[in-house]
Amino acid sequence: MMGELSVATPIDTMELRALLSAVAGTINFIGGGTDMLIAGRPMPTGGLLIDLSRIAGMAFIYAD
């Protein structure tokens, strides 16, 4: 059975911190929706998906 996927789009780091402190399950981050499409990765099927693109300075996610 698949879990329920919730999506959040916080507008600032204060809202992001509140989300992170309130969630006890799986959290995935995206910087807009194209990350999943470009990488060819499937969308998560459960937990919380947080879109960081509306937070100033967090529109992009880079891997080091």
Keywords:
3 strands; 3-stranded parallel β-sheet; alpha/beta; 64 residues; globular
Describe the secondary structure blueprint for this structure.
Elements: E1 5-8, H1 13-22, E2 27-30, H2 34-39, E3 47-51
Parallel strand pairs: 1-3, 2-3
Describe it.
The protein has 64 residues and is an alpha/beta fold. It has one domain (5-51). Helix content is 25%, strand content 20%. It contains two helices and three strands, in the order E-H-E-H-E. A three-stranded parallel sheet has the order 1-3-2. Helix 2 (34-39) links the parallel strand 2 and strand 3. The N and C termini lie far apart (34 Å).
The geometry reads as globular
Radius of gyration from CA coordinates: 12 Å
Strand content: 15-25%
Q: How is the main sheet built?
A: 3 strands, parallel
Q: Please trace the helix and strand order, writing H or E for each element.
A: EHEHE
The overall average pLDDT, rounded, is 83
- Helix share of residues? 25-40%
| Poorly predicted runs of 5 or more residues | none
Could you give a short description of this structure?
It contains two helices and three strands.
